[in-house]
Amino acid sequence: MRALTTLLLLLAPLLACAQTPTALEQADTDWNRLRLHGDARALAPLLADDWLLTHSDGRIQHKADYLQELATRQRRNTRIDNEDVQIRRYGDTAVITGTSVQAAVSDGKPWEGRFRFTRVWVQRDGHWQMVASHSSRVAQ
Do residues 113 and 137 lie in contact, with contact meaning Cβ atoms separated by under 8 Å? Predict the structure, then answer.
């Protein structure tokens, strides 16, 4: 019994860490949550000033334009579900890839789709900021 108690005490910190998201995982989760809620003000600090979004149709968008689109509700995300998310870190840089099932209304037109995404994050002053995001529509 004493050995079991000792083992549990040694494993407790490891189990706690395994269940707590890292700052990077939290930032990426916040990216999706804040887009879904259209919270441009809270989203702004997660994006680098030179952030660039490449849409699945090849169109590019800069930070100010994207945030304005969210703030004015020209774009309203109604679904963002990510799958197969993989995080690869390279020092202060991270690349997150996965599949996202999304639905939204843009300029009054509803759309939905399944996309492969790549997001590049950089750690600056102890905080993660996204510098680029790219999505490609998955063929049906």
Answer: yes
pLDDT tens by residue, 33-68: 999 999 999 999 999 999 999 999 999 999 999 999
Sequence-ordered list of residues with C-beta below 8 angstroms from that of 38, at least 6 positions apart, any chain: 70, 71, 73, 75, 76, 77
Tokens of 45: 């600090």
Inter-residue contact 119 to 132 (CB < 8 Å): yes
- β-strand 127-137 against 60-62: which pairing, if any? unpaired
Partner residues linked to 61 by β-bridges: 53
CA gap 118, 64 in Å, rounded: 20
Structure tokens at 115: 């996309």
Q: Is the pLDDT of residue 138 over 90?
A: yes
Whether the Cβ atoms of residue 94 and residue 79 lie closer than 8 Å to each other = no
pTM of the model: 0.82
Task: Please state, in angstroms and rounded to a whole number, the distance separating the CA atoms of residues 95 and 130.
Answer: 10
Amino acid code (one letter) for 39: D
Inter-residue contact 110 to 103 (CB < 8 Å): yes
